[in-house]
Protein backbone atom coordinates (compact mmCIF):
# COMPACT_ATOMS: atom_id res chain seq x y z
CA UNK A 1 0.00 0.00 0.00
CA UNK A 2 1.25 3.54 -0.76
CA UNK A 3 2.04 5.92 2.14
CA UNK A 4 -0.85 8.34 2.83
CA UNK A 5 -0.57 11.79 1.23
CA UNK A 6 0.31 14.64 3.61
CA UNK A 7 -1.88 17.66 4.48
CA UNK A 8 0.09 19.76 1.96
CA UNK A 9 -0.81 17.32 -0.83
CA UNK A 10 -4.48 17.48 0.14
CA UNK A 11 -4.36 21.29 0.25
CA UNK A 12 -2.77 21.22 -3.20
CA UNK A 13 -5.57 18.98 -4.49
CA UNK A 14 -8.29 21.10 -2.84
CA UNK A 15 -7.01 24.27 -4.51
CA UNK A 16 -5.75 22.91 -7.85
CA UNK A 17 -8.38 25.00 -9.63
CA UNK A 18 -6.59 28.18 -8.49
CA UNK A 19 -3.72 27.42 -10.90
CA UNK A 20 -6.11 26.51 -13.65
CA UNK A 21 -8.16 29.71 -13.29
CA UNK A 22 -5.14 32.02 -12.98
CA UNK A 23 -3.71 30.60 -16.20
CA UNK A 24 -7.05 30.55 -18.02
CA UNK A 25 -7.78 34.20 -17.22
CA UNK A 26 -4.26 35.29 -18.16
CA UNK A 27 -4.67 33.52 -21.53
CA UNK A 28 -8.12 35.10 -21.96
CA UNK A 29 -6.55 38.54 -21.38
CA UNK A 30 -3.81 37.58 -23.86
CA UNK A 31 -1.28 38.68 -21.25
CA UNK A 32 1.45 36.41 -22.64
CA UNK A 33 1.21 37.85 -26.17
CA UNK A 34 1.51 41.32 -24.66
CA UNK A 35 4.59 40.34 -22.65
CA UNK A 36 6.11 38.69 -25.74
CA UNK A 37 6.75 42.24 -27.01
CA UNK A 38 8.91 43.03 -23.95
CA UNK A 39 8.83 43.22 -20.14
CA UNK A 40 6.21 45.43 -18.50
CA UNK A 41 5.57 46.86 -15.05
CA UNK A 42 2.42 46.30 -13.01
CA UNK A 43 1.27 49.84 -13.85
CA UNK A 44 1.83 49.35 -17.59
CA UNK A 45 0.00 46.04 -17.63
CA UNK A 46 -2.94 47.45 -15.66
CA UNK A 47 -3.20 50.37 -18.08
CA UNK A 48 -2.99 48.17 -21.20
CA UNK A 49 -5.42 45.52 -19.93
CA UNK A 50 -7.70 47.85 -17.94
CA UNK A 51 -7.22 45.97 -14.67
CA UNK A 52 -7.14 46.91 -10.98
CA UNK A 53 -3.60 46.89 -9.53
CA UNK A 54 -4.22 45.05 -6.26
CA UNK A 55 -5.65 41.77 -7.63
CA UNK A 56 -3.47 42.05 -10.75
CA UNK A 57 -0.31 42.14 -8.65
CA UNK A 58 -1.50 38.96 -6.92
CA UNK A 59 -2.29 37.30 -10.27
CA UNK A 60 1.15 38.19 -11.67
CA UNK A 61 2.81 37.01 -8.46
CA UNK A 62 0.88 33.74 -8.69
CA UNK A 63 2.00 33.27 -12.29
CA UNK A 64 5.61 33.83 -11.17
CA UNK A 65 5.12 31.30 -8.36
CA UNK A 66 4.08 28.59 -10.81
CA UNK A 67 6.98 29.41 -13.14
CA UNK A 68 4.96 30.90 -15.99
CA UNK A 69 6.21 34.48 -15.57
CA UNK A 70 9.49 35.93 -14.33
CA UNK A 71 9.95 39.25 -12.51
CA UNK A 72 13.01 41.50 -12.19
CA UNK A 73 13.83 45.22 -12.04
CA UNK A 74 12.55 45.66 -15.64
CA UNK A 75 9.14 44.25 -14.78
CA UNK A 76 7.28 41.05 -15.62
CA UNK A 77 8.32 38.88 -18.56
CA UNK A 78 7.31 35.54 -20.05
CA UNK A 79 9.11 32.46 -18.78
CA UNK A 80 10.03 29.77 -21.35
CA UNK A 81 6.67 27.93 -21.09
CA UNK A 82 4.65 31.08 -21.74
CA UNK A 83 7.00 32.17 -24.55
CA UNK A 84 6.76 28.81 -26.32
CA UNK A 85 3.12 27.86 -25.87
CA UNK A 86 1.09 30.88 -24.77
CA UNK A 87 2.15 33.73 -27.05
CA UNK A 88 -0.43 33.95 -29.83
CA UNK A 89 2.30 34.75 -32.36
CA UNK A 90 4.16 31.52 -31.56
CA UNK A 91 3.70 28.75 -34.17
CA UNK A 92 3.23 26.40 -31.20
CA UNK A 93 0.47 28.44 -29.51
CA UNK A 94 -1.68 26.23 -27.24
CA UNK A 95 -3.78 28.83 -25.43
CA UNK A 96 -6.88 27.19 -26.89
CA UNK A 97 -6.53 24.48 -24.23
CA UNK A 98 -7.53 27.01 -21.62
CA UNK A 99 -10.49 28.34 -23.58
CA UNK A 100 -12.21 24.94 -23.64
CA UNK A 101 -11.23 24.21 -20.03
CA UNK A 102 -12.70 27.61 -19.10
CA UNK A 103 -15.97 26.64 -20.79
CA UNK A 104 -15.94 23.29 -18.95
CA UNK A 105 -15.12 24.79 -15.54
CA UNK A 106 -18.74 25.70 -14.54
CA UNK A 107 -19.87 22.23 -15.64
CA UNK A 108 -17.57 20.67 -13.05
CA UNK A 109 -19.41 22.59 -10.31
CA UNK A 110 -22.40 20.41 -11.29
CA UNK A 111 -20.56 17.12 -10.94
CA UNK A 112 -22.78 16.02 -8.08
CA UNK A 113 -25.87 16.60 -10.25
CA UNK A 114 -24.35 14.36 -12.94
CA UNK A 115 -23.75 11.66 -10.34
CA UNK A 116 -27.26 11.90 -8.89
CA UNK A 117 -29.17 12.16 -12.16
CA UNK A 118 -26.91 10.46 -14.69
CA UNK A 119 -27.76 13.37 -16.99
CA UNK A 120 -25.25 15.61 -18.82
CA UNK A 121 -24.94 19.05 -17.24
CA UNK A 122 -23.99 21.08 -20.32
CA UNK A 123 -25.06 21.42 -23.90
CA UNK A 124 -22.87 19.55 -26.37
CA UNK A 125 -23.46 22.46 -28.75
CA UNK A 126 -20.82 24.25 -26.66
CA UNK A 127 -18.25 22.03 -28.38
CA UNK A 128 -19.08 23.70 -31.70
CA UNK A 129 -20.37 20.70 -33.67
CA UNK A 130 -23.72 22.42 -34.33
CA UNK A 131 -22.53 25.46 -36.23
CA UNK A 132 -21.13 27.83 -33.57
CA UNK A 133 -17.86 28.83 -35.27
CA UNK A 134 -16.24 30.31 -32.15
CA UNK A 135 -17.04 27.22 -30.08
CA UNK A 136 -15.67 24.98 -32.84
CA UNK A 137 -12.41 26.96 -32.90
CA UNK A 138 -12.15 26.59 -29.12
CA UNK A 139 -12.67 22.84 -29.45
CA UNK A 140 -10.27 22.48 -32.40
CA UNK A 141 -7.52 24.40 -30.61
CA UNK A 142 -7.86 22.06 -27.65
CA UNK A 143 -7.59 19.03 -29.94
CA UNK A 144 -4.46 20.70 -31.34
CA UNK A 145 -3.08 20.89 -27.79
CA UNK A 146 -3.64 17.18 -27.31
CA UNK A 147 -2.04 16.55 -30.70
CA UNK A 148 1.09 18.38 -29.56
CA UNK A 149 1.54 15.58 -27.04
CA UNK A 150 0.30 12.55 -29.01
CA UNK A 151 1.41 13.53 -32.54
CA UNK A 152 5.20 13.26 -32.06
CA UNK A 153 4.75 10.01 -30.11
CA UNK A 154 2.62 8.54 -32.90
CA UNK A 155 5.08 9.71 -35.57
CA UNK A 156 7.80 7.77 -33.71
CA UNK A 157 5.73 4.74 -32.68
CA UNK A 158 4.99 3.26 -36.11
CA UNK A 159 7.23 2.30 -38.99
CA UNK A 160 5.93 4.74 -41.60
CA UNK A 161 8.69 4.02 -44.15
CA UNK A 162 6.58 1.76 -46.37
CA UNK A 163 3.34 3.74 -45.92
CA UNK A 164 2.27 6.30 -48.51
CA UNK A 165 -1.23 7.34 -47.40
CA UNK A 166 -2.95 7.93 -44.08
CA UNK A 167 -6.47 9.02 -43.12
CA UNK A 168 -7.11 10.64 -39.75
CA UNK A 169 -10.80 9.95 -39.13
CA UNK A 170 -12.40 12.67 -37.00
CA UNK A 171 -8.99 14.34 -37.12
CA UNK A 172 -10.38 17.77 -36.07
CA UNK A 173 -8.26 20.55 -37.62
CA UNK A 174 -5.46 18.10 -38.44
CA UNK A 175 -2.97 18.67 -35.59
CA UNK A 176 -1.99 15.02 -35.18
CA UNK A 177 -1.90 14.40 -38.93
CA UNK A 178 0.31 17.46 -39.44
CA UNK A 179 2.85 16.21 -36.90
CA UNK A 180 3.03 12.79 -38.55
CA UNK A 181 3.37 14.31 -42.05
CA UNK A 182 6.00 16.80 -40.88
CA UNK A 183 8.07 13.93 -39.47
CA UNK A 184 7.69 11.73 -42.61
CA UNK A 185 8.06 13.82 -45.74
CA UNK A 186 7.06 11.02 -48.16
CA UNK A 187 3.55 10.74 -46.65
CA UNK A 188 0.28 12.22 -47.93
CA UNK A 189 -2.62 12.40 -45.49
CA UNK A 190 -6.33 13.15 -45.39
CA UNK A 191 -8.20 14.50 -42.42
CA UNK A 192 -11.88 13.44 -42.48
CA UNK A 193 -14.11 15.56 -40.26
CA UNK A 194 -17.32 17.57 -40.28
CA UNK A 195 -17.46 20.13 -43.15
CA UNK A 196 -17.47 23.06 -40.68
CA UNK A 197 -13.91 22.11 -39.69
CA UNK A 198 -12.54 22.91 -43.19
CA UNK A 199 -11.54 26.58 -42.59
CA UNK A 200 -9.74 25.70 -39.35
CA UNK A 201 -7.95 22.85 -41.12
CA UNK A 202 -6.92 25.09 -44.05
CA UNK A 203 -5.60 27.70 -41.64
CA UNK A 204 -3.39 25.16 -39.84
CA UNK A 205 -2.19 23.37 -43.00
CA UNK A 206 -1.27 26.75 -44.52
CA UNK A 207 0.47 27.96 -41.38
CA UNK A 208 2.58 24.77 -41.25
CA UNK A 209 3.36 24.80 -44.98
CA UNK A 210 1.78 21.35 -45.41
CA UNK A 211 -1.18 22.26 -47.62
CA UNK A 212 0.11 20.20 -50.57
CA UNK A 213 0.41 16.94 -48.65
CA UNK A 214 -2.41 17.41 -46.18
CA UNK A 215 -5.95 17.21 -47.56
CA UNK A 216 -9.36 17.67 -45.99
CA UNK A 217 -12.49 15.66 -46.67
CA UNK A 218 -15.67 16.95 -45.05
CA UNK A 219 -18.48 14.53 -44.32
CA UNK A 220 -20.25 12.24 -41.88
CA UNK A 221 -18.06 9.32 -40.89
CA UNK A 222 -21.13 7.23 -40.07
CA UNK A 223 -22.78 7.71 -43.46
CA UNK A 224 -20.35 8.74 -46.20
CA UNK A 225 -17.96 6.57 -48.21
CA UNK A 226 -14.56 6.84 -46.53
CA UNK A 227 -11.42 7.40 -48.64
CA UNK A 228 -8.99 4.47 -49.04
CA UNK A 229 -5.63 4.58 -47.20
CA UNK A 230 -2.82 2.35 -45.98
CA UNK A 231 -3.14 3.61 -42.40
CA UNK A 232 -6.39 4.60 -40.72
CA UNK A 233 -6.13 6.59 -37.51
CA UNK A 234 -9.07 6.87 -35.08
CA UNK A 235 -7.96 9.37 -32.45
CA UNK A 236 -10.04 10.00 -29.32
CA UNK A 237 -13.31 8.90 -30.89
CA UNK A 238 -14.11 5.80 -28.84
CA UNK A 239 -15.21 7.53 -25.62
CA UNK A 240 -17.73 9.73 -27.44
CA UNK A 241 -20.06 7.07 -28.81
CA UNK A 242 -22.07 4.09 -27.61
CA UNK A 243 -20.79 0.60 -28.30
CA UNK A 244 -22.84 0.12 -31.47
CA UNK A 245 -21.44 3.34 -32.98
CA UNK A 246 -17.88 2.44 -31.96
CA UNK A 247 -18.05 -0.98 -33.63
CA UNK A 248 -19.62 0.63 -36.69
CA UNK A 249 -16.86 3.24 -36.92
CA UNK A 250 -14.10 0.65 -36.56
CA UNK A 251 -15.78 -1.57 -39.19
CA UNK A 252 -16.16 1.37 -41.61
CA UNK A 253 -12.49 2.29 -41.20
CA UNK A 254 -11.48 -1.36 -41.68
CA UNK A 255 -13.55 -1.49 -44.87
CA UNK A 256 -11.82 1.59 -46.30
CA UNK A 257 -8.35 0.37 -45.33
CA UNK A 258 -6.15 -1.06 -48.11
CA UNK A 259 -5.37 -4.81 -47.71
CA UNK A 260 -2.18 -5.10 -45.64
CA UNK A 261 -2.89 -1.68 -44.10
CA UNK A 262 -2.91 -0.77 -40.41
CA UNK A 263 -5.85 0.41 -38.34
CA UNK A 264 -4.74 2.50 -35.37
CA UNK A 265 -6.92 3.51 -32.44
CA UNK A 266 -5.26 6.21 -30.33
CA UNK A 267 -7.26 7.01 -27.22
CA UNK A 268 -7.46 7.71 -23.50
CA UNK A 269 -8.32 4.11 -22.70
CA UNK A 270 -8.27 2.15 -19.48
CA UNK A 271 -5.54 -0.47 -19.79
CA UNK A 272 -5.89 -3.12 -17.07
CA UNK A 273 -2.12 -3.72 -17.33
CA UNK A 274 -1.20 -0.03 -16.83
CA UNK A 275 -2.49 1.46 -13.55
CA UNK A 276 -1.49 4.97 -14.70
CA UNK A 277 -4.32 4.87 -17.26
CA UNK A 278 -6.82 5.11 -14.37
CA UNK A 279 -6.51 8.88 -14.90
CA UNK A 280 -8.74 8.34 -17.93
CA UNK A 281 -11.71 7.90 -15.58
CA UNK A 282 -11.40 11.67 -14.99
CA UNK A 283 -11.22 12.30 -18.75
CA UNK A 284 -14.41 10.30 -19.01
CA UNK A 285 -16.20 12.28 -16.29
CA UNK A 286 -15.35 15.39 -18.28
CA UNK A 287 -16.95 13.79 -21.35
CA UNK A 288 -20.05 12.63 -19.46
CA UNK A 289 -20.70 16.17 -18.23
CA UNK A 290 -21.77 17.05 -21.80
CA UNK A 291 -22.19 13.80 -23.68
CA UNK A 292 -24.80 11.20 -22.68
CA UNK A 293 -23.07 8.60 -24.90
CA UNK A 294 -19.70 9.17 -23.22
CA UNK A 295 -18.38 5.89 -21.81
CA UNK A 296 -15.11 4.63 -20.45
CA UNK A 297 -13.46 2.38 -23.01
CA UNK A 298 -10.74 -0.11 -22.33
CA UNK A 299 -7.91 -1.41 -24.46
CA UNK A 300 -9.68 -4.79 -24.21
CA UNK A 301 -12.91 -3.34 -25.74
CA UNK A 302 -10.98 -1.74 -28.60
CA UNK A 303 -8.93 -4.84 -29.31
CA UNK A 304 -12.19 -6.85 -29.54
CA UNK A 305 -13.71 -4.31 -31.95
CA UNK A 306 -10.63 -4.49 -34.19
CA UNK A 307 -10.77 -8.31 -34.23
CA UNK A 308 -14.52 -8.23 -34.99
CA UNK A 309 -13.73 -5.94 -37.94
CA UNK A 310 -11.38 -8.63 -39.30
CA UNK A 311 -8.04 -7.14 -38.21
CA UNK A 312 -5.23 -9.58 -37.47
CA UNK A 313 -2.19 -9.29 -35.18
CA UNK A 314 -4.10 -6.94 -32.87
CA UNK A 315 -1.83 -5.42 -30.22
CA UNK A 316 -2.01 -2.83 -27.46
CA UNK A 317 0.84 -0.39 -26.83
CA UNK A 318 1.45 2.43 -24.37
CA UNK A 319 1.88 5.72 -26.26
CA UNK A 320 2.51 8.75 -24.06
CA UNK A 321 1.18 9.67 -20.60
CA UNK A 322 -2.05 7.74 -20.12
CA UNK A 323 -2.67 7.38 -23.87
CA UNK A 324 -2.72 4.00 -25.62
CA UNK A 325 -2.53 2.63 -29.13
CA UNK A 326 -4.51 -0.39 -30.29
CA UNK A 327 -3.31 -1.60 -33.70
CA UNK A 328 -4.32 -4.28 -36.16
CA UNK A 329 -3.50 -5.28 -39.74
CA UNK A 330 -6.02 -5.86 -42.52
CA UNK A 331 -5.30 -9.29 -44.03
CA UNK A 332 -4.22 -9.27 -47.69
CA UNK A 333 -6.55 -12.24 -48.45
C1 LIG B 1 -13.03 14.00 -29.74
S1 LIG B 1 -12.65 14.73 -31.26
C2 LIG B 1 -11.17 13.90 -31.70
C3 LIG B 1 -10.20 14.80 -32.40
C4 LIG B 1 -8.86 14.17 -32.75
N1 LIG B 1 -9.00 12.97 -33.55
C5 LIG B 1 -8.05 13.88 -31.51
O1 LIG B 1 -7.44 12.81 -31.44
O2 LIG B 1 -7.98 14.72 -30.61
C6 LIG B 1 -13.86 14.05 -32.33
C7 LIG B 1 -13.80 14.60 -33.75
O3 LIG B 1 -14.76 13.89 -34.53
C8 LIG B 1 -15.43 14.81 -35.37
N2 LIG B 1 -16.76 14.26 -35.68
C9 LIG B 1 -17.79 14.07 -34.82
N3 LIG B 1 -18.83 13.52 -35.46
C10 LIG B 1 -18.45 13.35 -36.75
C11 LIG B 1 -19.08 12.80 -37.89
N4 LIG B 1 -20.33 12.29 -37.82
N5 LIG B 1 -18.40 12.77 -39.06
C12 LIG B 1 -17.14 13.26 -39.13
N6 LIG B 1 -16.47 13.78 -38.07
C13 LIG B 1 -17.13 13.82 -36.89
C14 LIG B 1 -15.49 16.08 -34.55
O4 LIG B 1 -15.69 17.22 -35.37
C15 LIG B 1 -14.14 16.06 -33.85
O5 LIG B 1 -13.17 16.74 -34.59
TrEMBL record:
<dbReference type="InterPro" id="IPR012967">
    <property type="entry name" value="COMT_dimerisation"/>
</dbReference>
<feature type="domain" description="O-methyltransferase dimerisation">
    <location>
        <begin position="12"/>
        <end position="86"/>
    </location>
</feature>
<dbReference type="InterPro" id="IPR016461">
    <property type="entry name" value="COMT-like"/>
</dbReference>
<dbReference type="Pfam" id="PF08100">
    <property type="entry name" value="Dimerisation"/>
</dbReference>
<dbReference type="GO" id="GO:0046983">
    <property type="term" value="F:protein dimerization activity"/>
</dbReference>
<keyword id="KW-0808">Transferase</keyword>
<dbReference type="GO" id="GO:0008171">
    <property type="term" value="F:O-methyltransferase activity"/>
</dbReference>
<dbReference type="InterPro" id="IPR001077">
    <property type="entry name" value="COMT_C"/>
</dbReference>
<protein>
    <recommendedName>
        <fullName>Methyltransferase</fullName>
    </recommendedName>
</protein>
<dbReference type="Pfam" id="PF00891">
    <property type="entry name" value="Methyltransf_2"/>
</dbReference>
<keyword id="KW-0949">S-adenosyl-L-methionine</keyword>
<dbReference type="GO" id="GO:0032259">
    <property type="term" value="P:methylation"/>
</dbReference>
<dbReference type="InterPro" id="IPR029063">
    <property type="entry name" value="SAM-dependent_MTases_sf"/>
</dbReference>
<dbReference type="InterPro" id="IPR036390">
    <property type="entry name" value="WH_DNA-bd_sf"/>
</dbReference>
<feature type="domain" description="O-methyltransferase C-terminal">
    <location>
        <begin position="153"/>
        <end position="311"/>
    </location>
</feature>
<keyword id="KW-0489">Methyltransferase</keyword>
<dbReference type="InterPro" id="IPR036388">
    <property type="entry name" value="WH-like_DNA-bd_sf"/>
</dbReference>
Amino acid sequence: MNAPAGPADLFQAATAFWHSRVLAVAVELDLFSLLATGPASLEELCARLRLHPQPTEALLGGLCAIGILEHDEHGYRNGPTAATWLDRASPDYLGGLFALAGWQFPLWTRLRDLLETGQPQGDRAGLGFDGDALALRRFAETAEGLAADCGPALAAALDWSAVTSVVDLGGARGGTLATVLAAHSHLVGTCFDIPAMAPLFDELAGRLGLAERMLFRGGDFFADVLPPAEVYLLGHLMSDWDEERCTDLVARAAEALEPGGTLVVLDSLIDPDRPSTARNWLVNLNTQLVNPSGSVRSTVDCADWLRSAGMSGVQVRALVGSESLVLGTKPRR
